[in-house]
Amino acid sequence: MYVLDHAIAMQIVSRTMAILDYNVNVMNSQGTILGSGDKQRIGTVHEAALLAITHNRIVEIKQDASDSLMGVKPGINVPLHHHGNIIGVIGITGDVSELKQYGLLLKMTAEMIVEQANLHETIQWENRQKEEFILQLIRADFTLSPQAVAWAGQLGIDLETPRVAAIIEISDGGGSLKELVHLLQHPERDNLVAMISLNQLVILKPAFLDGLNWDPELESRRIDQLLKRLPKALSEHTKVALGHYFPGLEGLSHSYQTAQDTLISGKKFNPEEQKYLFEEYSLQVLLSGMKQTWRGEVLSSAYQKLLIADKKGILIKTLSAYMKHFGDLQSCANSLHIHRNTLRYRLDKIQRLTQLNIHSLDGLFSLYLGQLITK
């Protein structure tokens, strides 16, 4: 049964007193005044309200009768109902003969406010339940139990729909996530949206936008459309990372993890960008978990030697340019604004320090992997 509280009672009082030039009281099902235009009466028991509740009828109190009842002034008191249950009473203070015409009108107004508040609370409860279910879906230890299937059914979530995870992050001062949630849910696209932190949302999006296959390029265009829809003040502070698609419900946690790792890698390597796709950072993401392992230490050992020896960062910068230009000496020298002989000298020094042949694919790739793992 719906329970009136002080906030709703005061909302009823303020809205009804804005229409009528009379004091209005709202009492709960125990006859206690929760809201009133006369603040001193809040918290006191209204005996006429108890009569209205007990007999489930309008109780009129004239001046002579009010003196014999506790906490009562002349007026009328009308029971409030919600789904057939008495939840309280609304009372109007004044001459009964003048107030009779307003009783049912006030009752309808108050009950409509209660219905709206109850609907709002129900929607909020359902949203919290859906958000909690989404957070369960992306957990690595999620299992599809009969209880989970029933829960999904109650929330209207189709567990058969293939989904991929994306993460949206708003930097400090970028605005409210609520605005983003609204844009992600309107128009309806079957997105499952949940807050994972104060500045991050996870979105479990339907993966097959063409109805047939997973197409990262199509998803990329959809992200571009979203960023264009955002108000400029919000868009400037927003970053979106799209994970990889893995089939099955058990794949959602993997998809979520790749989205998180893609966001981390994207911000590290291209902080000026807004959109990061797993397909564009797959190597960095796959290597990200190796930094603290013995495999990662071995793969990055040569690059670490270079990093330690290169105090001014000149050789690291040279190596990065050499990789970027795929070993083209002239293009590399031009980008660094140095002579080719200077470039050869630096490359020879890199080879001596790392003991790798950077003119071979294996040697250069080893340093590239070491660079990615170290970053």
Task: Set down the secondary structure blueprint.
Layout: H1 6-17, E1 23-28, E2 33-36, H2 47-55, E3 59-61, H3 63-66, E4 75-82, E5 85-93, H4 96-99, H5 103-137, H6 146-155, E6 163-170, H7 177-185, E7 192-197, E8 200-206, H8 216-229, H9 232-235, E9 238-242, H10 251-269, E10 275-277, H11 278-288, H12 294-309, H13 314-324, H14 329-336, H15 340-354, H16 361-374
Parallel strand pairs: 9-10
Antiparallel strand pairs: 1-2, 1-5, 3-4, 4-5, 6-8, 6-9, 7-8
Helix pairs in contact: 1-5, 5-6, 10-11, 12-16, 13-14, 14-15
What does this structure look like?
- This protein has helices at 6-17, 47-55, 63-66, 96-99, 103-137, 146-155, 177-185, 216-229, 232-235, 251-269, 278-288, 294-309, 314-324, 329-336, 340-354, 361-374, and strands spanning 23-28, 33-36, 59-61, 75-82, 85-93, 163-170, 192-197, 200-206, 238-242, 275-277.
- With 375 residues, it is an alpha+beta fold.
- It has three domains: 6-121, GAF domain (Beta-Lactamase, 2-Layer Sandwich), CATH 3.30.450; 160-288, Alpha-Beta Plaits, CATH 3.30.70.270; 294-374, Orthogonal Bundle (Arc Repressor Mutant, subunit A).
- It has a five-stranded antiparallel beta sheet, sandwiched between helices. Strands 7-8-6-9-10 form a five-stranded mixed beta sheet, with helices on both faces.
- Helix 5 (103-137) packs across helix 6 (146-155).
- The protein is elongated and about 110 Å long.
- It starts with 5 loop residues before the first helix and ends with a helix.
- The mean pLDDT is 91.
